[in-house]
Design goal:
Oligomer: single chain
Number of strands: 12
Helix content: 25-40%
Distance between the termini: 50 Å
CATH architecture of the largest domain: 3-Layer(aba) Sandwich
CATH class of the largest domain: Alpha Beta
Bound molecules: pyridoxal-5'-phosphate
Strand order of the largest sheet: 1-7-6-5-4-2-3
Radius of gyration: 22 Å
Number of helices: 14
Number of domains: 2
C-alpha cells in the first residue's frame, strides 16, 4: 500500500461518523451490550470486540491499522509509552530459565529491564557488540529464546545486520525484537527483513509535536494476540483514546516532516563536518561512519539525530557550547518540531569526566522543523563562544 493512502485514509470508516475527515475521539471506558451471548463472546476473545478500553477502542483501532500497514505487518498494539511497549513485548516472550541476547547499548530503560528486572525472574541476558554477526553466534546458549535489537541506537548509531540476525534466529526458533524508533518504517522495515516484532516509540517521529507519549509493537496476528491476551491486558498500559487521536494527527504530516528533517539534517551535517571547532561527527549515512556500507544496504534513510564532539572538548567547553545556544533547546527526547541538544556529560558527575573517552565528549543534536540557516546560525554563534 502507498504511504499516502495509509496516512490519509487507511483504517478510517468515515461513513460511521458523519463523514468527518478527522476521526472522533471515543473517550469511553466501556461499551454497552444488548445480548448475553454477545457479552460472552467478548469475554472469550476480548481482542475481537469493543468491551472495555483497556483492551480495544475504536479510535485506537484506526491508529493500529495505520501503524501495522506502515510496517508491512499483520497487526499492531499501541501503548502509552515506548517503554511500556518494550516491557509488554519482552515479558510476553520470555520465561524463567530463558536466556536473552541484547545489543550492548540499547535505550536506557530497555537496558534496565534486561540487566535489573528480568534477572529477578530467572531470565539472564548477554549484552553483545551487535555490529559483528559472530558475536551473536558466540553468545548463543541452548536456552536462548529471545534476541533484542536496536538498530541504529540513538547515541552512537551502531547497526546490526538484520537479515543475518533474523536468519540465525529462525534456524534456532528464537524470537527477534527490534527497537526501530531511529529509522521509523519510512527508512527501515524490519518485518520484511524477517524480524518477528518491531517496536517504535511513537513519542518521537510518529507524534512529532512533543505533546504526547506513545509506543507500538507490530508483528504477525498470532504474536500480537499473544501479547494482547496476556501482558497487554494485565499491565494495562494501552494508549488512551485522546493520545491515540494525537498520534493519528501526527501521522498526517509524518512523511512531510521526515522529508524536511532529512534535508535539513544533511545541511547541518555538512556544516558541522567542515567547522574548525568540531572534532568529529557521527551519522549512520555519512561516509565516515564505521558501518556506512551496511547502513546504506538496509536503511533507506536516516534523519534528525546526529552526535558530534568539539575539538579538545572539556566539561567546561561542552557546557559553554550547550548553554550558549539561543534557539536549539536543551532537553531529552527527540522527533518533535523543535531542535534539541543534549551533552553526554550531563549524565557524568564532574570528577568522572575523562577527556580521553570519546563517548564523554559526545553532544547529541536533534534537528527539528526549523529552517536550516536559522539552526546553523545558532550553532555558529555557540561554537564561536567555546
Ligand atoms: C524514547 C525512546 C524509548 C522510550 O520511549 P518512551 O515513550 O519515552 O517510553 C525507547 N527507545 C528509544 C530508542 C527511544 O528513543
Amino acid at each position: 500500500m502507498e504511504i499516502s493512502e495509509i496516512l490519509n485514509e487507511w483504517g478510517e470508516e468515515r461513513e460511521l461518523y458523519f463523514n468527518a475527515i478527522a476521526p472522533p475521539i471515543m473517550q469511553t471506558s466501556n461499551f454497552a451490550f444488548k445480548k448475553v451471548e454477545d457479552l460472552r463472546n467478548a469475554f472469550e476473545d476480548e481482542m475481537s470486540a469493543y468491551l472495555y478500553s483497556r483492551g480495544i477502542n475504536p479510535t485506537v483501532d484506526i491508529l493500529r491499522k495505520k501503524l501495522a500497514a506502515l510496517d508491512g505487518a499483520e497487526d499492531c498494539l499501541v501503548f502509552n509509552s515506548g517503554a511500556a511497549a518494550v516491557f509488554a513485548g519482552v515479558l510476553a516472550n520470555v520465561k524463567s530459565g530463558d536466556h536473552v541476547i541484547c545489543v550492548r547499548n540499547p535505550y536506557s530503560w530497555s537496558k534496565r529491564l534486561f540487566a535489573v528486572i528480568l534477572p529477578r525472574f530467572g531470565v539472564t541476558t548477554t549484552f553483545i557488540d551487535g555490529t559483528e554477526m559472530k558475536n551473536f553466534e558466540e553468545a548463543l546458549q541452548p536456552n536462548t529464546t529471545f534476541i533484542f535489537l536496536e538498530s541504529p541506537n540513538s547515541w552512537t548509531y551502531e547497526i546490526q545486520d538484520l537479515q543475518a540476525v533474523a536468519a540465525l534466529a529462525k534456524s534456532r526458533g528464537i524470537t527477534t525484537f527490534i527497537d526501530n524508533t531511529y529509522c521509523t518504517p519510512l527508512y527501515q522495515r524490519p518485518i520484511e527483513m524477517g524480524i518477528d516484532l518491531c517496536m517504535q516509540t511513537a513519542t518521537k517521529y510518529i507524534g512529532g509535536h512533543s505533546d504526547t507519549l506513545g509506543g507500538l509493537i507490530t508483528g504477525s496476528k498470532e504474536m500480537i494476540k499473544k501479547i494482547f491476551d496476556s501482558e497487554f491486558l494485565t499491565i494495562g498500559s494501552g494508549i488512551q483514546p485522546f493520545n491515540a487521536w494525537l498520534l493519528i494527527r501526527g501521522l498526517r504530516t509524518f512523511q512531510a516532516r521526515i522529508e524536511r528533517i532529512t534535508k535539513t539534517t544533511g545541511q547541518v551535517l555538512q556544516f558541522l563536518k567542515s567547522h574548525p571547532r568540531v572534532e568529529h561527527v557521527l551519522f549512520p549515512l555519512d561516509e565516515s561512519f564505521p558501518q556506512y556500507e551496511l547502513a546504506k544496504r538496509q536503511m533507506k534513510g536516516a534523519c534528525g539525530l546526529l552526535t558530534f564532539s568539539l575539538k579538545n572538548g572539556t566539561m567546561e567547553s561542552i557546557t559553554t557550547f550547550c548553554e550558549s545556544l539561543r534557539h536549539i533547546t536543551m532537553a531529552v527526547s527527540w522527533g518533535g518540531h523543535e531542535s534539541l541538544v543534549i551533552p553526554r556529560c550531563a549524565g557524568i558527575k564532574p570528577g568522572h569526566f575523562k577527556a580521553g573517552k570519546p563517548e564523554h565528549q559526545h553532544i547529541r543534536l536533534y534537528i527539528g522543523l526549523e529552517d536550516a540557516d536559522y539552526l546553523m546560525k545558532d550553532l555558529e554563534q555557540a561554537l564561536s563562544n567555546v
